[in-house]
Amino acid sequence: MSRARVRWSLSLVALVMPLAAAMPAVLAGDQSAPAPTAVAADAPTYVRDIAPLLNEHCVECHRPGQMAPMSFLTYEATRPWARAIQRQVVGRTMPPWGADPAVGHFANDPSLSADAISTITRWVDAGAPRGEGAPPAPPAAQSDEWRIGTPDLILSMDESFPIPATGIIEYQYFKVPTHLKEDRWVTAVEIRPGEPRAVHHLRIFAQGPERDTRPVPTGREMYCIDEVCGNLEPPLIGWGPNLASVAVGTRPEVYELGSGKLLKAGSVLTLHTHYTSFGEASTDRTRVGLRFAKTPPKVQLKTVSMAQEQFAIPPGDANHVVNASLEFREPVQLHSLGPHAHLRGRSWRFWLQTPDGTRTELLSVPRFDFDWQLHYVFKDPIAVPAGSKLEGTATFDNSPGNVNNPDATATVRWGPLTVDEMMFASVVYSADKK
Ligand code: HEC
Which residue, among 298, 291, 345, 350, has the nearest Cα to 324 in the 3D structure? Predict the structure, then answer.
């Protein structure tokens, strides 16, 4: 479950209810900046320097109805959080991003530049002054527009799912038929949770109408699909390829010009949804918007899972290592990686081992955070020669020192519940030739 978010909703309820109306200054409390007495003439101001930064990097989440519990839409709403904002941006915990900057370059990296961090720091140190005039308007609320543009197809869950105010909600699986009469090339996918505060993460799998006739291997056999061979990940067999995923902190998937994912006629989507309660009873009915290419794209994106389901994490072990790998039988381009683990996930690293003996690190997520199921899109796709191996290592913390750990006395194995673990990564690639 999302500990941080639950913590916030509770602490805000506690703070806001008795105090907010009468004494807004109390809310400001220790979060606020020093009083703006002697503002240096060249100090950054909210109107000129800070509002544009918040609009670009923060308000997509920090606005009413979105996932973050505090809004940064106005000076009045933002100022009490000035110190906290400084802390978060200097510590690089906001905006959320997990990749070690020393490894790889990513197209969807939302990190603030060093300049932006310095501007925010100087603003807070100067007392978080407002400045003269009107601040730039924040981007329009996205409640009814789709960020991918008008979808060609909008699908929705059959009915609303009830979210209880408290407690752990186990993973839910919703089937949504596409009713497509012909194959389509998907160029963009947007997942619109009905209740963004409750949808922790959600993955969409697309299953074509033809039944999967591959024999289901047993034990630790390898399986091969198209260009790729890997370990078996039993729970995902029969779900079809991963079409898209949305998590706290991810943007809609829009594929580069000329690339797309094939969605077969008659496909049925499975919405694999992880909800978290947030202190209020509610309901969710998630919608999915799809855009289609008019002509088949040059680059067909495919997704496979790199997984290792054979593990047992001993009780108390703070650093249990689990490895997985995939082999490429044909040359491919690697587009993105999306590591997935549950509450005991601690870190992730990925390497590419090419047949000439070179081993290159592709991605390192030193502090994996279950609250932010991010995927990492390479700025330039990685060329993978035939015979290369993608290797992934995850570490798990099953010690009492892990504040998210629901039970440090359990031996933890692969399973679908949040108290179980998973070790898998979505790997998006395209084949050099078809
Ligand atoms: C992808 C969504 C998202 C984006 C983008 C985002 N935040 Fe947040 N932020 C959250 C959520 C959700 C929380 C609540 C705490 C949590 O779950 O970690 C939060 C919490 C915070 C807090 C309170 C943390 C504390 O413990 O005091 C601050 C301050 C903050 N964010 C600042 C920012 C700033 C500044 C930016 C932009 C530079 C930003 N955030 C961008 C989602 C986001």
Answer: 350
Question: Tell me: the pLDDT tens digits for 224-262?
Answer: 667 777 765 433 444 455 666 666 556 667 776 677 888
Which of 13, 30, 61 gets mutated to test ligand 1 (max ligand atoms within 8 A of its CB)?
Answer: 61
Residue 244 CA to ligand 1 center (angstroms) comes to 24
Contact in structure between 237 and 216 (CB atoms under 8 Å): yes
Pocket test for ligand 1, best of 2, 49, 59, 62 (most atoms within 8 A of CB): 62
Predicted TM-score (pTM) of this structure: 0.81
What tokens were used for 18? 């008795």
Q: Is 68 in the pocket of ligand 1 (CB under 6 A)?
A: yes
> What CATH number does domain 153-431 carry, 2.60.120.230, 3.40.50.1820, 3.30.1490.20, 3.40.50.2300?
2.60.120.230
Ligand 1 site-directed mutation target among 55, 67, 88, most atoms within 8 Å of CB: 88
pLDDT by residue (tens digit) across 259-283?
788 888 888 888 888 898 889 999 9
Domain boundary assignment for the chain: 3-125, 153-431
pLDDT more than 70, % of the chain: 79
Cβ neighbours, 10 Å, residue 362: 18
Indicate the length of the chain as a whole number: 434
Structure tokens at 426: 């979505």
Residue 29, classed as helix, strand or coil, is helix
Instruction: List the residue whose alpha carbon is closest to atom 23 of ligand 1.
Output: 84
Number of Cβ within a 10 Å radius of residue 201:
24
pLDDT in tens, 336-354: 999 989 999 999 999 999 9
Q: Please report where in the chains the tokens 């300049």 appear, as a residue.
A: 115
The pair phi, psi for residue 276, each rounded to 5°, is: -125, 140
Query: Using a 6 Å cutoff on CB, does residue 84 contact ligand 1?
Result: yes
Pocket flag, ligand 1, residue 96 (CB < 6 Å) = yes
